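Hi L.,

You mentioned the student needs an example of a multi-chain input paired with its predicted structure. This one should do, with 899 residues in total across all chains.
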Amino acid sequence: MARASSNRRKTVVTVLAWAIGLLIFFPILWTVLTSFKTEAEAVASPPSFINFHWTLENYAEVQSRSDYFRHFLNSVVISLGSTVLGLIIAIPAAWSMAFVPAKRTKDILMWMLSTKMLPPVGVLIPIYLIFRDIGLLDSLLGLIIVLMLINLPIIIWMLFTYFREIPGEILEAARMDGAGLKAELLYVLTPMAVPGIASTLLLNIILAWNEAFWTLNLTAAKAAPLTAFIASYSSPEGLFYAKLSAASTMAIAPILILGWFSQKQLVRGLTFGAVK
Amino acid sequence: MATTHSRAAARLMLSPAVLLLLGWMIIPLSMTIYFSFLHYNLLIPGTHDFIGFANYSYFLTDPAFFAALFNTLLLVGGVLAITIVGGVLLAILLDQPMWGQGIVRILVIAPFFVMPTVGALVWKNMFMNPVNGLFAHMAKALGLQPFDFLAQAPLASIIGMVAWQWLPFATLILLTALQSLDREQLEASEMDGASPFSTFFYITLPHLARAITVVVLIQTIFLLSVFAEILVTTNGGPGYATTNITYLVYAQSLLQFDVGGGSAGGIVAVILANIVAIFLMRMIGKNLDI
Amino acid sequence: MGEIVLDQVTKTFGHVQVIPPLDLQIEDGEFVVFVGPSGCGKSTLLRLIAGLEDVTTGEIRIDGEPATHTAPAKRGLAMVFQSYALYPHMSVKKNIAFPLKMAGLPQSVIEEKVENAAKVLNLTDYLDRRPGQLSGGQRQRVAIGRAIVREPSAFLFDEPLSNLDAALRVNMRLEISELHNSLKTTMIYVTHDQVEAMTMADKIVVLNAGRVEQVGSPLDLYNAPRNLFVAGFIGSPKMNFIEGETAEAHRATTVGIRPEHIAVSTDAGSWAGVVSVAEHLGSDTLLHVQTENLGTLTARVDGEFSVRHGSRVFLTPQEDKMHRFDARGLAIR
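Structure written out for the whole complex:
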């Protein structure tokens, strides 16, 4: 490759990459734009790109008609609740596997991963019936428990890969320096583990926020998070493009922003540490 | 640091997670197996007779099952093919020096964070709708007849939507893997006189093998259970054209309230997933070093 | 004080005995080096003394007190790790202060001790940096600083220089030696590098497969190696070993002669040969000579010696510097 042409090459690559990037991003961009249009403009032919009458009334309408905010709160409670609960159970488990590995540690980890492969329909009916009988159907608590369980393997794996990177010599150094178990936890382990725990938290909030099998099947009205809220637009309200767009924008915006911050951790978390 | 004392403590710390996951696997699964041998419909209260394998023979001889099995394979295979090929190409493109790389990355990764119900509804209404969708507008502007995607090519349309959501994932992982490729290896192959083409096949692609394995594994787990996209767009139709196993079991159990039949379907889905999983775990087990 | 005694200490991992019964006496103020090839058990031995591993059987006494079951922190020892094991989230100051904080010393005392240590180790300008912002040599100094502020009865070093480049290694070697001269505290130092062992130690413990092969001062080991292993391990370039008729003539199975104890001549000598490689170092010249019936021998000549590949030379060993070994590999005295 001639180095002299590298600038021209860079230009070509830039143009191509931006074109593809914008193409992939376009449906999201179009949704956001449409959310600021009136219904008439939203279906106008030919459609206008930015040259339209910008309005916020769709957002007001979505909120007043279907109570966006309540569903948003449900999503927050479910995703945060299931993640925090999962972390409480996963941190000691990942911790012990990373620092006191036994002969069966690898087997246990692989088995945990395999539970992730159990198709949800295999257990849908019993969970549905159990929840119906003990009153967890359409409840936030029920969803918190289910989502915690389905994401637990991922949480444990992610934490395990982070914890394993904390060098054992550091813990030994702390012990030589006279740190007891409490001081070791407080001054050495926790500060070193916090970044890993934070990334795990972030990724799992995203996964739980977007989970759309259990949230759709186990909720009706009361506990419905945003996934179910949007599903109610499938017909015929979906034909009101501007309102659909406003509702969609509000459903994805918070997590899109979180997601952009957690790109790196996403790769690691979702590949069970196999790709970093 | 491994003393007997810490071993016991470690086991204690591990047990809640193991017990929960074990319970989550065993209790509902054994209930599903039990239900699958019963004549059990929520609309017919009272008797739950033991009927042996009748539910299975009903489910497995139902033409809908074969349609669903075929659709599931097409959906998983189609999305995997698009995302892997597209992901490799896109990752290589994004790995080149360019202006605004960070922003392009953000644009490309975005669809992964869009919840499945939103993605599917936006595609269905705002793009694929034969009257007001953007594709219809484009067709009309070109003087063509608008194409009714979800009626005329329903499964392909759904494959497209799901691939749009998963392409970013594949790209991001392959890009991460690509960035760990030793630059000196590429320079060495350039010195050895390899063309960019053979460099790709002999150096880059083998380096990506592990990442591709991982992408296949993870995506398969999720793609076998695609549900929301079908629920909000086609409801499995027209006919059974977009019904996959997951959706078929859902329809059997929660729309027709046939707990027995649905359970038999669920167990079939578990067995199919296990067949796939055995292959995948072998692959990833070889690739993961713990 | 820092007298450490190991009495019949063994260590078993699973079914593998990595340390067979071992006795060792380390006097107060001594600089002791454990040296041996990788996997010889030298690090395990150090970790047993530190208390990071439990001994399987036997006893460890520190200053006469049994310490076998004492927690690492209570043994009054400080350790410098191979990876330095600095706390990445703490500044240099906090790293050095950590053991003092754990000991519950008042803040003013901690400040003073950290400052003194920093002065000794040339770290004063870096006290507020994090380990990640330091060079390898600076990190090494921080790790040593963290060890000396505790005023331990003995320092344990686990291959502390193996992550440094060659030039820095020589510097740090001198610094650690100087530190030992000024502190006069017992130091136990683990390395696989016999040069470090020879230059730093008062007493060298040569280990092989968990066994102590020989204990002695550097020159003891150099002049009177107890067996073939020590003879081959100590000294650089390695001792030449000769078997067969030449050895039998000396009533031994194997004889050893160090390269520096072979005289080289271009005219006449005991063994004739051809130079295969000549390494001209300026200060001395190393010749690898292919002899007619003794295999390749290495010889060392002071200063310059102008021969090249292919030159014909004659080697003459100094008879009084010959080492003789019997069939079991033990030295014949």
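You could point out the following to them. The radius of gyration of chain A is 24 Å. The mean pLDDT of chain A is 83.

Best wishes,
N.
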